[in-house]
Amino acid sequence: MSDNEARDIIKNITPGTRLEIIKTNGDIIEVVLASQEVRGLEEKRYDNLVVPALPAALIVYGGRWGKFRLDTQDIVSIVQIS
Questions:
Q1: Helix (H, G, I), strand (E, B) or coil at 49
Q2: CA neighbor of 67 nearest in space, from 40, 42, 43, 31
Q3: Distance between alpha carbon 78 and the CA centroid of its chain, in Å?
Q4: How far apart are CA 6 and CA 60, in angstroms?
């Protein structure tokens, strides 16, 4: 799924709403939307430390992992379930 498609789907969904996400590998996961932002992060350099660039992603809460990023390129479908 592209960044724009993901943005269009979640723009009217409030954070805290339960979502069902179908991933490209066939997994179906249930998560809670944490943020409506869908963006990547650029590479950052701090003296001898390099933080790599991150692709665009949804920020969600889920199960035992707590808050995490779900890359938009790994998503096939997003459905609001509550």
A1: strand
A2: 31
A3: 10
A4: 13
Residue 64 confidence class, pLDDT cut points 50, 70, 90:
confident
State the Cα torsion 53-56-59-62 to the nearest 10°. -90
pLDDT tops 90 at residue 63: no
Residue 15 identity? P
Of the candidates 1, 21, 8, 25, which has an alpha carbon nearest to the alpha carbon of residue 73? 1
Q: Please state the three-class secondary structure of 16-55 as a single string.
A: CCEEEEEECCCCEEEEEECCCCCEEECCEEECCEEECCEE
**Helix or strand or coil: residue 43?**
coil
